[in-house]
Every structure is written in C-alpha cells, then in structure tokens.
Here is the input.
Amino acid sequence: MGDWAVSEKLQTGFAFPETGREWDEVLSDLEAFKSDDFDWRRGRLPTYTYFWNEELLAKQKSSYTAYLGENGLGEGSAFKSIARMSSDIYSAARSIFHAPDDATASFTSGGSESLFLAVKTCRDWTRSKRKEPKGQYNIVAGESAHPALLKAAKIMDVEVRRVPVDAEYRVSAEALRAEIDDRTMMLFASAPCYPYGVFDRIEDISALALSLDLWFHVDGCWGGFISPFAKLLGYPIPEWDLAVPGVTSLSADLHKFGYAAKGASLLLYRDPSMMEHQAYYFDDWPRGIYYTPTLSGSKAAGSVSSAWAMLQHLGLKGYIEATDATMAATMQLIAGIDQIDGLETLPQYRESNLFSFVSTDDAVDIMAVADILQENGWMRGRMKTPLAVHQGVTASHLPYVAEYLEVVSDAVDEARRTGRKGKFGVRSY
Here is the structure.
C-alpha cells in the first residue's frame, strides 16, 4: 500500500479554513487520500464496492450528478421528475420480483433502512391488527440473518429469536416453528444469507407463514439484482420472491448488482395498504403538514436518477451479461481454491456469488492466511462460524481470478511453512 502524499496544510491536522484553498489542490488531496485504500478496481475487495468497468462507473457518476442539486424530500411536489423515475423503478422491480400489479414499493438509502422500515411497518401493522397500541412482539429468524435486522429490532424494542441453520446452512421452517408464540409478528429469511451464500427454505417458510397468518419478510438485499438473471442463465436459484404466495415484503439493494450509485435500495409490499403503517404523517406543526414515506427526510435524488439510468441503460441484456461475468468468476474461484492443498470451500450450491473457504490442514491457520492476503493488498472478509475467509464476487474479479488464486496458494504455503497464527479480529464486515 502506498504512503499518503498530502499537502503540508493537512499534515498537521484539519482546521477550519479562513480563506479556502485552490480547487485543484483540494482535488489533488482527495486523490492522494486514496493511496492507502485497497484497490477495488482490481478485485482486491470482497465487499463494499460493486464495480464492473470504468465505462459504467463514468455513467454511474454522470447519472448521479445529473440530480446532485435536487432533494428527494420534494419528490412529487417540487420535483415531479423524481416521482416519475421512482415509478419506473418500482414498475421494473414488480416485474423482476413477480409482484402483483398493485404491490407498492419504497426507495431507501440501503439495506439497513429497508430492513428497519420492514420491521417498523410490521410492528405497527400488527399493533393495528391486534388493537394493541403499545404491543411488544418478536421476530423469528435464523442466526445467519443480517445484523441490520437485530439493529432495527433493538431500536424498536422488538425481540429477535434466532434459530440455528441446518446442515446446508439454511434456515428451515421447522426451526422457526419451534420459536413461534402468540407474540410473534414476523418470520424472516434470507435470499441468500450473507455469511454462507445460500437461500433459506423460502417456500417452506412461506407455507408456515400462511398457515399462521404471520408476516414473512425475505431479505434479498445482496441477491435481489443478481438472482433473477442468474436463474435465466441456468443457475439453480430457488423460488424466493413475491411469486411465493406467503412472502409479505421483500428488500433488494439497487446499489449492489443493480449498479446504482450508493445509497439505493428497495422495499416492496405485496399489499399496498401496508404503506400506511410505514409512512410518518404529522399535521400539528406551525409549518403545516409533515410527511415522509421513509426514515429519511432530505435524501439524495442522485441515487434515484442513477438507479433509473442504470435500469434504462443496461436493460435485461446488460444485467444478464454482468451476472454471467460475476457468476463465472465465482465458479472459477471456487474451483481453483478447492484445488489448493489445505483449503476447501463451504458448499454454496451455485446459488450466489458469495462463498467461503476453510483450512483442512492443522498446519495452516486460516486467519493467518487472511492476514497474509491482507498484507499483500487483498482485503478479505473473515467468518466466525466456522473460521473461514469470506468472499463476495463481482464482475470486476473475473480478470484477476488466476492472480488471486496464485496469491492464495502462496499465502497457504507461507502459513504452513512459518506456523504463523492469525486472529479473527474485532470487525470483519
């Protein structure tokens, strides 16, 4: 990694400028700051960025800045164009997620906000349905559910009951059933889950939710804009979206494999009446009526314009092409790592572009392998259960598969030769 090369004015710490600085100098510092970052353009990151190529990146930037000055808070009032773009995005989402024509959707800042709103809406809907204005409830989910669910539940004083995954790392209906009681408001499943890259048993959980009249949320934040296209390419993607009758709500991130600028996510409800439990309305204010459909007040209109532009520009053909490259890179990486002596990938059944690999050799500490990779410029995700190196794959990884496999093989050899021990670390996501 390179040394920071910043101007003298910033080396001693930041003070609020009295007169300001030349713009070229400021831009130069912005570029210099990146010298200590991992090189995401060359496949060195396992997550955070969803890069395909420079040409598309330039289009993402220009479509975002086209609405840099507008404010999503004024959607439909001051800025009818934002409402038009949102409507087009929702229509496209209803199509690829097999939603009813009257299903409603919201544009959020990311997967965490989408999950927050799903929990909030379900809680308020349940209170209304049961006529319990202050009712407290629980959600039953797998231990592989994204922690953003637990964060949302903690904020809203909702209990989350977590069940173990089965032998295929999936959450089953049977496991969820064991934790359901009369205070359960939601069943939760992932499509796929982030740790293991596999789909929970959505159809079975759907049947359970229908039989008990429970809300069922499917978290497709990672796979939402890759799974439909992978299925068209012949990958064995299970049924998971609103085509499954018991699915009440679904979340999917546009700023991952929808290639929109961050932050952009969608939350869909099968029943449009659910939206009244999501939005916030307040009319006892001197300024007048305050209304926001999502958690945010002011929000970046550029995320909406970027998402709209990517859907228009790429179309079905473009998304299939990107998904083909992404899944090809995933399968090549899995096959290559399984050929390295001392390593083995966890089964992910060709269902996603997420995978992990573990050590099968007592002389090779997998966290030491991760440390060595990171020291050589390849940031790795780290699994806790089991201890493993975790990898999310993008289309940008495809040209670097052979290079990465060589680096991994060398890291394994070094860990074995030196007996080095690594550590899991405080933060791995």
